[in-house]
What does this fold into?
Amino acid sequence: MTIALSSQRRVFRRSAIILQGLIVVQLLIVVGVSSVATAQEIANAPVSQYCEIQFLDAETDRPIPLITATTTHGVRYISDNQGRIAYFEPGHNGQAVFFRLETHGYRVPVDGLGSEGVRVQIEAGARRTIRLHRDNLAERLYRITGADLLRDSILLERTLNESSSPAKSGVVGQDSVQVAEFQNQLYWSWGDTSRLSYPLGMFRTAGATSPLPENSERSPSEGIDLTYFEDESGFVRPMVELEDPEGVVWIEGVCVVKDDDGAEKLVASFSQRRDLANEISHGMLTFHPDDQVFRKTTSLSKSQRWQFLKNHPVQVNADGKEWLYSGIPIPVTRVPAAYDSVMNLEAYESWSCIDTSSKTDTPQPRRNENGELDWRWQISLPVSSQLESDWLKQAQISADEAWYLPEDSSNPGRRIRLHTGSVYWNAFRGRWVMVASEFDTRQNAPSHLGEIWYSEANQPEGPYKTAIKILTHHRQSFYNSCQHPFLSQDSHRVIYFEGTYTNMFTSSPATPRYNYNQIMYRLDLQHPQIERVFGPPAG
It folds into this structure.
């Protein structure tokens, strides 16, 4: 997995439409896998043998992917990107089948006996639809990466092809996205890639391009048309060229800057690692368009932990010049937005209240003569959510002084320890908006890395004082989320973001086809709950 990992929490609600008396419910679900019917049976079954079940969002009437429907005897189906399940169990034709549902943020009714799920009358060739009410503020749209995106819809002959499926490159899983607009295209990269043909995948950064939204044949609400950089075998190839072949190579901080001649350069930082805990080397990269590969420009010592581009940089005009701000998840480090500056570690500074005169081994907060925290841009480590959490536990700061431990809007007094995410300017809200995961270590947390929060601030560096939960993943991780401002719609009222969905860092089983892949969501910033917490749009 890629550089930063953390925990999040989110309330998973399982619902059931149970027939108290005699009600037969029609159900809408997406692509699935059967643990009873064999792959050969499914492949040979005529379309008329399938019972189509589709799940729809009751509010938007859109298909809901990633709904798991499990029978009372353990047969599990999972909806595809069109919310469909092609149900094929020959012995069930003409019978009512009860499904327990796992929905990750959608509500399913409960009957009078407390049973959660839906009962569906199975008939070969029939179509069943069920609409689920969404508790998440964010709406799940589709899985971006991996194979079999439309598997059940294809089995049901509801779509003729899967032209945008990355399966054509042998890709079945991808972790942690980076994306930047460069040379009239979007350049995408991922840290790790799983392959269909062998257990070992590719761990030195895969890449792809897609058209800009205005040049794409599809709306961002429908999918992303990825074209992968491939090797001679047809599988994705490494995008980073280093002399040392050892270990994995992950990149972050991908963005575009101009050199002294005004030419645009695609740059990134890299980390070469033996494993998650042991780094071999790190530094800065420059992309070479002629052969479509990143090469090392600057090497950094292992002690240089903050003077490079991180996460998802944003361009900011401040103090009379253009800067690149970056950080995880808050952009608290900045460097002049010029190629030479980005490659010069002496050009970086951080937003911090760390006392640089302190002789202690651990960072200490600095206060002014009035006893207030003394925040400024300085040459030092930045302050993080983790550091503030430590200071708070040690009573070195109060909760109200924290910039990066936002208060849970639905649970006053509870502070959210942020993990990974991104911050971008939003023209609709007139503020900087954050979408980030929570690192939640509570025993009763819905997930430790699967809860996603939204917050706002007047400046990119904060403070972020309050947050509202917009997304949950029950006992699954959803980390390294990233907003995509270039996909925003309706004057940036609707924003898009994705993240890595996986059972990593949980004790839960993997979700077939979805595990270790990117899932796209969207959020309407005109949602009443957002205005309740943050007020009307600014300006």
Observations:
- Residues 385-393 form the longest helix (9 residues).
- The CA atoms of residues 354 and 365 lie 5 Å apart.
- Residues 170-259+266-300 form one domain.
- The chain is about 5% helix and 35% strand.
